[in-house]
Amino acid sequence: SQTIHQWPATLVQPVGSPLSLECTVEGTSNPNLYWYRQAAGRGLQLLFYSVGIGQISSEVPQNLSASRPQDRQFILSSKKLLLSDSGFYLCAWSESAGELFFGEGSRLTVL
Amino acid sequence: DQQVKQNSPSLSVQEGRISILNCDYTNSMFDYFLWYKKYPAEGPTFLISISSIKDKNEDGRFTVFLNKSAKHLSLHIVPSQPGDSAVYFCAAGGNTGTASKLTFGTGTRLQVTL
Fold this sequence. Notes:
The complex is a heterodimer. Chain A is an all-beta fold. Chain A is built from no helices and 11 strands. Chain B is built from no helices and 11 strands. Chain B starts with a strand and ends with a strand. At the A-B interface, strand 4, strand 5, strand 9 and strand 10 of A face strand 4, strand 5, strand 9 and strand 10 of B.
């Protein structure tokens, strides 16, 4: 069966520091991969998605970037965090269009 | 521009009764809709979906109704159980090729009381 994991689960970082959140999927090949963010009191906002290695689509302009160095690995990064980057980050995968399967989430607090 | 709206941030229902969660959308190009359930500090889990060519889909205690003319869908949970207490997100997707670019609502927190 397919599984998705992301880490770290919780992160507290100072403003201006770098960020790296990692997500891996097991049990499937060539999945579509996604990064969503849930800010306080808001819905889930799609940040990036990828349909293949090295292929990244950005949905909103921001301070973050994403990379897909391997088929089942998706990384969310920032060179310098802002206070507004705080939130709950969710990695997800899908086989094609349709249902998304989410990871456990990563809580980022920028101080 | 909020294309998917859940206007009720919270809902409280007694155990055994029906829970009705509502969702409105504005984009007529959406062709499938999903409901997700989320517990605190966890990722959302898929509950049920419906294609735009249908008006009802049922799975156990969960039923989703779609009214395309009103651009409205609802999730019915019958009977409600304490374990149903969570945040419920409505999501919508369109024909965007191979990727599943879902648009989510802001969620409704359901509290099922004893």
